[in-house]
Automatic annotation (TrEMBL), chain A:
Stretches assigned to the NADH:quinone oxidoreductase/Mrp antiporter transmembrane domain: 130-430
GO biological process: one example: ATP synthesis coupled electron transport
Source organism of this protein record: Saccharococcus caldoxylosilyticus
Keywords from the UniProt entry: Cell membrane, Membrane, NAD, Oxidoreductase, Quinone, Translocase, Transmembrane, Transmembrane helix, Transport, Ubiquinone
Reactions listed under catalytic activity: a quinone + NADH + 5 H(+)(in) = a quinol + NAD(+) + 4 H(+)(out)
Name of the featured protein: NADH-quinone oxidoreductase subunit N
General function of this protein: NDH-1 shuttles electrons from NADH, via FMN and iron-sulfur (Fe-S) centers, to quinones in the respiratory chain. The immediate electron acceptor for the enzyme in this species is believed to be a menaquinone. Couples the redox reaction to proton translocation (for every two electrons transferred, four hydrogen ions are translocated across the cytoplasmic membrane), and thus conserves the redox energy in a proton gradient.
Automatic annotation (TrEMBL), chain B:
Organism, as annotated: Saccharococcus caldoxylosilyticus
Keyword Transmembrane: yes
Residues that span the membrane, as ranges: 6-25, 32-49, 55-76, 96-116, 143-163
Domain of life (superkingdom): Bacteria
Role: NDH-1 shuttles electrons from NADH, via FMN and iron-sulfur (Fe-S) centers, to quinones in the respiratory chain. Couples the redox reaction to proton translocation (for every two electrons transferred, four hydrogen ions are translocated across the cytoplasmic membrane), and thus conserves the redox energy in a proton gradient.
A GO term for molecular function: NADH dehydrogenase (ubiquinone) activity
Protein name: NADH-quinone oxidoreductase subunit J
Amino acid sequence: MSMHTLLQYKWSMMTPEFIVLITALILSLADLWMPNDKNRRPLAWIAVVGVVIALIATAGLIPAKPVSILYDTFRIDSFSKAFKLLVLAGGALCLLLALDYRPKEGLSHRGEFYYLLLCALLGAMIMASSGDLITLFVGLELLSVSSYILAGIRKTSAQSNESALKYVISGGIATAITLFGMSYIFGLTGTTNLKEMAFEVQKLADSNYQYLLALAFLLLLVGLSFKISSVPFHMWAPDVYQGAPTPVTAFLSVVSKTAGFVILLRLFITIFAAAPAHGKDPSSLLLSMQNYIAVLAGLTMIIGNTVALRQRSMKRLFAYSSIAHAGYLLVGFAAMSWVMIDSIWFYLLAYVLMNVGAFAIIQRLSDEADSDDMIHFAGLYQRNPLLAVSMGIFLLSLAGIPGTAGFIGKLNIFLGALMTEPGHYMLAAVMIATTVVSYVYYFGVFVQIFFRPADEAASVKLPVGLTVTVVLCAFGTLLFGIFPSLAYQVLAQFEHFGDFLQ
Amino acid sequence: MSGEYLAFLALALVAITGGVLMLNLTKVVHMVIALVFTFISIAGLYVLLSAEFVAVVQVLIYSGAVTIMMLFGIMLTRHQEEEGEKTTTGGFWRKALTAIAVFAFGIAVYLGVYRLDFGEEGARLHENNTEQIGMALYSHYTIPFEIASVILLVALVGAIILAKKDDEGAPKS
């Protein structure tokens, strides 16, 4: 390939990726050349500014037509733009959390902490905008490898070490399963390009091939369920979430999960929707596999919500709650209504806001006490009423109470499940029942904050980064809860992701 | 039964035996050697598939670099012989369930592949395959190739910060 053909591609479409990459490189060099005794915290501001510029650049790309660079190894369509916005917003909020992360024993690799977060974010962005199996996998690995290191960055904490080791081992197994599934699809179609794959699988009429394709589907589903922390790969979440530094926990529960759903939707909708299957009308492998996804979604909701009831540690509680939320999101996927991607996008938006906001407050209180037990939330209302009210908003939104973004998100998914023909009444019923169960533990925290006496009278002061995060998240949660049409207007620009397969 | 089939059987058997031995041996050095057997027989499988370049890379990187790294790791770390110590490996039912799951998966895959017909084998696979890999890697797959370099950077930084011994006087922020 000559230089000329290489320059013909619209590389300007990769601006957000370049910005994040360059910011990460600048930070790594700055970290290298800064004197050893200098505080690294200002570097986080550079990272935040870089991600915000990338966010603006992505927003600027919204009107652009779908573009494919180098045979779809990088492609930008409305799906990738929409989810890249989410990933970048979540990443910026997590960086603000990281700015004010102050563990008891100090953090000796603060500079690395920031640029590894940026690299993980870059991996998630690459996953959002690719139409090629190899790029998708490389992006997935970039995200995973960075997260493994980030989980273990508190080297002197035994919990952090345990968390990193558990994460890397279960992550390795999940990657192996995913890759095994991918190898079957590649073997059956002979290409790594998703669109060509979709074209090739249509020709697989033989039932032997279809059996293998179904096997590949299940392997991919199981392997990718690790990233979104749903059944059967959810057991890592509580231990890893508890041991990892709080900003990393927030990152794993928000950005990593979003990226997991992105790759799941991209792969399954592109490849398997077109594949023929026996005994189904309309004949589609994706539709015939719907029941398996539905069962996993149901199990995820039930396990996540019931085990959360017994948790005392806030980070473990939120780990199980994040498993439950992955279950709700899977309901949106299993229903396969025409609003599937829209409802998942909105739910993830609400989830980013409410979860990062809640983690900001958890981080503040657990750093102070060096423990994340629920008891430290007791009497928060007396110590800082505004903070308590914000936490209340996040909890209400996570529980799905009207007036918050979480409610609208759940409503969309719920309606999506009933909208199809035949409707998924069973799944919708499980969703309602588990949501009611979830009230118990969310309101348990609520009671601690508002009705228990405080152990210490000292008021809680919030540092700048956390203040910005909490204010933005609380504002967003209420805004999209009361005026969801604002988010729908953004969604309307993507026109139901019609250019997904173009 | 052709010679290729026999070679495949032998190599596959060595690969699997190496893997099982690695899990069951108790001394770390023995484990590494068992792993080398697996790596080299996988390289042999690549040769059978006329992918010589991948086979050479497999020997260079896995049997060479990765193994040497592990040996260095063993040499440079203190490790006590833990022969008397009891480790928990789960009860009977847990093992039985795992075994059933593994065999069920094996049977499921076997059912899929044992009568699979992929038609004619590509006759020109072996021609210039190193050149073809190079062409694909540096033109078609430039973007993932570049991202792989970021992964290597991340892995390098991670290995250093996780393995480095912090000096006591280091500033903490």
